[in-house]
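W.,

You were right to be curious about this one. When I first looked at the sequence I had no strong expectations either way, so I just let the prediction run and decided to look at it fresh. Below is the sequence, 136 residues in total, followed by the output.
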Amino acid sequence: MSESASGTASADVEAISTGIDDMYEAFLRGDRARFDAHLHAEVTVWETHLPGPLRTRAELDAYREERDQSGARPVLDGLRAQDRRIDVWGDTGVARYVLVAEPPGAPAEYSRVTDVLRRTGDTWLIVHHHAELLGP
């Protein structure tokens, strides 16, 4: 993890890092409410495997409902962020990391991720999530 741009926000950097870990742990446990607690209602989500940019949490929810009803929700043995760089400027944070997804019985998949966060009260919420699947 890097320090913030100003060097004074190490508690904020740690809070963002802890939130990212909690979000992915929630995904592994199938705890959607806990996962969503890290997302702003107007979050935009751009990922390699998604059907285009999702511009609100409502659009993300609709996508997840359809995916889950079809039985296509990913099953993973592990999901973790590594090689993190997190910077904070006031009430804005940016986290960049490599996301490692470990499907059962298959090689790990790596994605390059950027999350833009906004402080809302005592909480950091993701307002933009961009993930690009890296090649083998």
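Here's what jumped out at me. Residues 10-29 form the longest helix (20 residues). And, maybe more interesting for your project: The first strand starts at residue 39 and ends at 47.

Coffee later to discuss?

I.
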